[in-house]
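Researcher: Watch the backbone:
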Amino acid sequence: MSFSSLGLSPSLLKAVEDKGYSTPSPIQVEAIPAVLSGKDVMAAAQTGTGKTASFALPILQNLEHGQKPQSKHVRTLVLTPTRELAAQVAESFSSYGKHLSLKSSVVFGGVKINPQISKLRGGLDVLVATPGRLIDLHNQKAVNFSQLEILVLDEADRMLDMGFIRDIKKILSLLPKKRQTLLFSATFSEDIRKLTSSFLYQPVQIEVSPRNAAAQSVQQSVYEVDKSQKTGLLSHLIRNNNWDQVLVFTRTKHGANKLTKKLGQDGIKAAAIHGNKSQAARTRALAEFKSYEIQVLVATDIAARGIDISELPHVVNFELPNVPEDYVHRIGRTGRAGSEGAAISLVSADEVKLLSGIENLIRQTLVRELETGFVPSHSVPLTQLKDRSQKPKRANSNNRPARKPNSQRNTSKPRNKTANTEQRKAHPKQKQS
């Protein structure tokens, strides 16, 4: 199937071709015709599946021949949870609409509000916004919604997780009742379904991936390591395997700063991105990461939403997330749009409950690895899926998770597998079950 078969205009098809895309993804095949039809849409799709284009392209087409917006008015509003995602979505609208005479812009907090007020004065066909800044602009009478035709809630599950429910309800109360509403979420949680029942009208429901599933293009593995050795192991893996672009996740802002400093001391160029960083610093760090000026971008979960880097090869969980669903979102940064990627988790013994929660969520037992020189003094206890009807494959009588041979590992330098295995068997806690 081609994009031309989805009913898009020549101008949009040219923009798609300019970006190098030829075949639509599954979410695009289903969502584009549904949005073009004017119906409400409720879609679930993993990150990296072409989700933004699945609503940006048909929205631009529907706006192309409509009435131009009056001063301070917007015709389409796209709500996103973070600044980074807002900037990414706005860039997509700009690039896909470059052959059209439509105006789009983005507003978010952390930067001066006056330039954003100036952009709104002429009216916009598309406004991408974070909830808090949008409410600020409305309170200053800088934006008017009476001409609004389309509302998009992007990454709705994350907006609920971040506590934006009140802001969302406030914004919904300001919008015209007669409009097209599109909701995109990684999952259809009960909270999402409860929220949407009040403002979606007979929506077309689209779900192109299993709930809470990790992309098949992502090779996942776990390295057992003592907490005190995590930084050393990370530096070792980066250097030994010549990783030139690695996105690393920590649980806290302080942890991100601390790790970035230690990597720098090891001679590895790194930068941190989190909520305490200014928008200018976050934008600069992301740009330097994309251009390979820095090797490692250390991020917290919220800051990383919206990071869209084509063919990002490696994601590392320096610490496992407290919420299992965040693991799926984290590793969704790699293996995007058909490319392959690797997700590596550095797991210490005190994180076994978090590891078990993740494995039960994604319904698989993750492959475990040991690295010579970093064999832990406190081994990570065994885990088991709760649903006994879906037993994971085991490699031996010790009931250890299956290991992949060297040829299947996602590293550029073979390891001493024999040494790893011998050291592990020699560990006094290895035979515990």
User: Anything to note?
Assistant: The two ends are 51 Å apart (CA to CA).
